Amino acid sequence: MTETHRTVQIGCGSRGQTHARALHDSDRFDVVAVCDLDERAARETADAFDVPSVYTDLDDALDTEEPTHVTLVTPATIRREVIADVLAHDPDSLLFEKPVATTHEEVAAVADLVAETDARVTVCHQHVYGEEIRTLGEWIDAGRLGDVERLTGSTKGGLYEHGTHFLHKLNWLLGAEPESVRAHAEWGDHPFDDWHAEVEPTDALVELAYPDDVRATLHLGPDAPGVPAQADTFWLEYRLDVVGTDGHGQFVLGSHASARFGDDGHDRVDVDGFDPDGKSTGRLYEILAECLSGERDDHPSDFSSALAVHRVVEAALRSADEDRAVAVDEIE
After folding, report:
1. Topology adopted by domain 5-123
2. What tens digit of pLDDT does each residue of 24-63 get?
3. Nearest CA among 147, 103, 122 for reference residue 243
4. Which H or E run contains 80?
5. Which of the ends of the chain has fewer CB neighbours closer than 10 A, N or C?
6. 3-state SS assignment for residue 67
7. 3-class SS of residue 197
8. Cross-strand bridge partners of residue 94
């Protein structure tokens, strides 16, 4: 018999709808309630996804429903205090959105909370479950590009907003974490209504030194090169090119993966948009359910992988400020 996990979702904004759909479509999570300060948003979400109960108070929802799993879809600017409130109710599992927080001090505070709990904590880095990125990863793992030598990527978002996703993808693709970071950053007026504006640069050039002399270079910000396939939607303008000894691969988020393999010709996989019908987010939940039921131990989007990403972000900011390469192990 399939084990199900009694679930409460906190946060019913636009991103919350993707989580609600993924949970609704899963047979491993039983969503018994949704909670949002905006009662109308909570009720509309409950009606759309057949959730029986609605709350506007977090403590009331968790005291009454006693969930084993909590999904938290609230702004990163208030992440620490809400995580503390949830963990005080001692769930078996907590999943929340990225970034972990918007300053390294807040990230460290959340890390302390996670260290003190027995709950499994997962961060919603769902990009790696999309077919375009998974396909590029399969080509790399199969050795079809040869030994990876360098990667070049760009995105229109900033270090916290988009960089955390991008760094998580790089670490996942390479199966490693960077050893050092060198960065140049520019601060200015953000062209978007961006809640990170006070704590992250407008534009950043970041070079990451991975083990075995693998180098990755990222341009993050509105001055990064455009990605024509996603030009109408700035937050999908992610592109990564991977050069290996035997080939070249690429993904464009929500568009395709393609590669040339030396003497083996070429390949291309087109995808039906970004996270279609919440499938990438749904795969993240499938893996989480397997972890909670003891079917596997590791989760590619666990808290430790997110913390590793934030250490790199902080190293990049320190590098830009101090005009030097920064070893990631300098960041606590």
Report:
1. Rossmann fold (3.40.50)
2. 999 999 999 999 999 999 999 999 999 999 999 999 999 9
3. 147
4. helix 79-87
5. N
6. coil
7. coil
8. 70, 121
Contact 202, 222 (CB under 8 A): yes
Tokens 């909370």 -> residue: 113
Q: Say how many CA atoms lie within 13 Å of 243 toward its Cβ.
A: 9
Amino acid (one-letter) located at 32: V
Q: List the one residue out of 274, 238, 74, 257 whose CA is nearest residue 158.
A: 238
CA distance linking residue 180 with residue 169, whole number of Å:
17
Q: What is the DSSP letter of 97?
A: P
Which DSSP helix (H) or strand (E) runs through 181?
strand 180-186
| 266: number of Cβ within 10 Å | 10
Q: What is the dihedral of CA 169, 174, 177, 183, to 10 degrees?
A: -70
Angle among Cα 118, 121, 125 to the nearest 5 degrees reads 170
pLDDT tens digits for range 294-320: 999 999 999 999 999 999 999 999 999
User: Tokens representing 241?
Assistant: 């090119």
pTM for the model: 0.94
Burial of residue 209 (number of CB atoms within 10 Å: 0-12, 13-18, 19+): middle
Q: What string of H, E and C letters represents the secondary structure of 269-308? A: EECCCCCHHHHHHHHHHHHHHHHHCCCCCCCCCEHHHHHH
Residue range 128-275+310-326, CATH number: 3.30.360.10
Distances (CA, A) of 238 to 88, 99, 230, 267: 37, 17, 8, 20
Helix 104-115 and helix 79-87: axis angle, to 10°? 10
Domain regions of the chain by residue span = 5-123, 128-275+310-326
The whole-angstrom distance between residue 22's C-alpha and the CA centroid of its chain comes to 16
Q: Which two tokens stand for residue 134?
A: 């998974």
Label the pairing between strands 5-10 and 69-72.
parallel
Q: What burial letters (b/e) apply to 94-104, b meaning 16+ CB within 10 Å? A: bbbbbbbbbbb
